[in-house]
Design a protein that fits this description.
With 172 residues, the chain is α/β, with parallel strands linked by helices. Helix content is 27%, strand content 20%. It contains 5 helices and 5 strands; from the N terminus they run βααβαβαββα.
């Protein structure tokens, strides 16, 4: 099976964003976070992680900023509720983290973090830094930028992640 969206990975990444799966809108246009109600691209700009508001089709430009993109589910698209447990490719993400060694993997929802850990939905997850690490890679959980999750939206964890991103960017 082919990937719905290509991974955006390279060595030397400071930050790797990991979503659950591409939305149907993203799958249709072949670009990450393409639904107009998704706050991902505006949030990257508001927090200063991008110098201008990128369009979803500009997603490969993130590599110039030492930012990558991936999803846990690569061969299906849709809402979290439409995904099957077998769709989650934890081993693939684990292999990518080991190969590319991003400094931070930021999961763009609690559902993505749960999927990474193989947890069921009742498992409690907090936003922010997680105790788990993988080598030198730290993990961070963000509120989902999806329009469907707008009731849980909070910009503060995104700002805190941006502060750490800039601290690490200045250190290289």
């Amino acid at each position: 099976m082919n990937d719905v969206l290509p991974d955006v990975l390279d060595h030397g990444l400071i930050l790797l964003f990991c979503g659950t799966a591409a939305s149907d809108a993203s799958a249709r246009v072949g670009a990450y976070y393409a639904n107009p109600t998704n706050a991902f691209w505006p949030t990257l700009h508001v927090t200063g992680m991008t110098p201008r508001r990128l369009n979803p089709q500009d997603f490969r430009e993130l590599l110039d900023l030492k930012i990558g993109l991936t999803d846990l589910v690569k061969c299906s698209s849709g809402s979290d509720s439409s995904l099957r447990r077998r769709d989650f490719l934890r081993e693939r993400l684990l292999s990518s983290i080991r190969r590319y060694r991003p400094q931070i993997v930021a999961f763009t929802s609690k559902a993505a973090w749960r999927g990474w850990n193989g947890w069921s939905s009742p498992d409690v997850v907090s936003y922010g830094w997680q105790a788990e690490t993988l080598g030198e890679t730290a993990f961070y959980v963000l509120p989902s930028p999806s329009g469907a999750a707008r009731g849980y939206w909070d910009l503060q964890p995104w700002r805190e992640l941006a502060d750490e991103y800039f601290r690490r960017l200045q250190a290289i």
